[in-house]
Amino acid sequence: MPERVTLRDVAVLADVSAKTVSRVVNGADHVTPTTRARVQQAITELGFQPNLVARSLRVGRADVIGLVVESLADPFFARLTSSVEQAAHERGLAVMVSSVGNQVPERESLVVESLLVRQVAGLIVAPMAQDHGYLAGARQRTPVVFVDRLPEGIVSDAVLVDDLAAGEMATGHLIDHGHRRIAFLGSELRNPTTRLRLAGYRRALARHGLDADESLVAVGAGSAGEARSAAEQLLGGERPPTAVFSSNMRCSLGLVPLLHSSGRTDVAVVSFDDFPMADSLVPAVTVIDHDPEVIGRAAAERLFRRLEDLDAAAETVIVPFRLVPRGSGELSPPGGTGRDRELGQDEVLATDREQDMAHHGVEGGRRP
Description:
By secondary structure, the chain is α/β, with parallel strands linked by helices. The chain is about 40% helix and about 15% strand. Strand 6, helix 8 (about 190-205) and strand 7 (about 215-220) form a beta-alpha-beta unit. The two termini are about 25 Å apart. Mean pLDDT is about 85; it is low at about 55-60 and about 335-368.
């Protein structure tokens, strides 16, 4: 397939700036007749076709962008969707939302194709599929920004958190409070966020000289019910964990009610993702918090910039996260081992907040 002629190609042939070409394409004033004729000649020679979608955005004409998420029933994706819709509304755009469902990732390509045939201006996709090569051709005509997870099989714009660092921070926090038997509770390993958070969990154990006990790793939980069953098995073992890193909201919604209903609130917990009422329980749930509204707006803004410059290099935007200590993640193991014996609980929480603010690698930023 021949490469698409770009605005920059026209600028080089006409010996003008890309901005001048843009002015000619959009019918703007302040271009001399001689320069305009030279640009028009270059457009004809190269067969350049203007990006009408980007032009419609610049002049404020209403249009539609597509958003593909796992499930709108998931509070994280519900809040992310609301943020994308707000950002689009500010640009005079509408959002067409479709969900894939966490059990059938193969549906992703069908859902995406249904939006592409409706000629949406661009797409924001929370990827579920394990190979996104099916989008390689579509990306030449429809910009795509991936959100929450990196795509697999193609290079594209993405907005996400550093799941590896977050997993390491959550596990390290439990280790710092004296725990040595720490369980990992997660979703399917086909999900890249699960793999990265598990890798962070293992990296924290290794950094503290602890052996990884694979009997404490429970993955494959696609729902809160499955997470509850997996947690029951972990806690019912011969040597149960004294702490659990729950790697997403669904797992936490299975784990935490189990602990409370079975009188096991002595088990320390750090949850990746906040969830409703987490701060109202006793003990309140310590969380790795990453704001879905921030992620949604960053994804929308990245898509708007991509629509204005289809030829810019792909960029991954890293949004910040933080550990919020509330009590469950600061519990000591049986016997009170760890620094809680030396510090009062208020001092522990204050120290954790200071460490959280100073922790490397959690500030927002961008990387090429």
